[in-house]
């Protein structure tokens, strides 16, 4: 800018640009995009549906991103923040988690809102994205939660197996996405 008098540049404020995109749900006044090759479109849709899970309540998250996050956890010991770790993994894959419990043992209903379903224990045949919860015990007041990355059980550390507690009074609850049943 050119000024014919002295100006303190710290006092000059430029307007902020805002881009607003309006998408019509009814399709009125909208231009149609050219149709892609139908086999290419079907292939992309099929590929995406295997990666992205949509729950009945509108939740959408990418299971590949979730398991990729889990595979990036390489610690060999716990930080005692398993629920936080699983929550961050789910959120990084697109899951919308607003109100969540602190204790791992209380995560069952939150998982079900995301589209997970409680199933019979399946530690011998886990699928990517499976999650288990260990209820509270006398020694572990918050319980434990872990997810299967495709190659290992992971919480806030890479576990050597699913059995992280040594007591016999451990009760597991196993969850799997509806799309993987």
From TrEMBL:
Region annotated Disordered, chain positions: 24-54
Gene3D superfamilies according to UniProt: endopeptidase domain like (from Nostoc punctiforme)
Compositional bias annotation for Low complexity: 36-47
Protein name (record): Peptidase C51 domain-containing protein
Species this protein is from: Acinetobacter schindleri CIP 107287
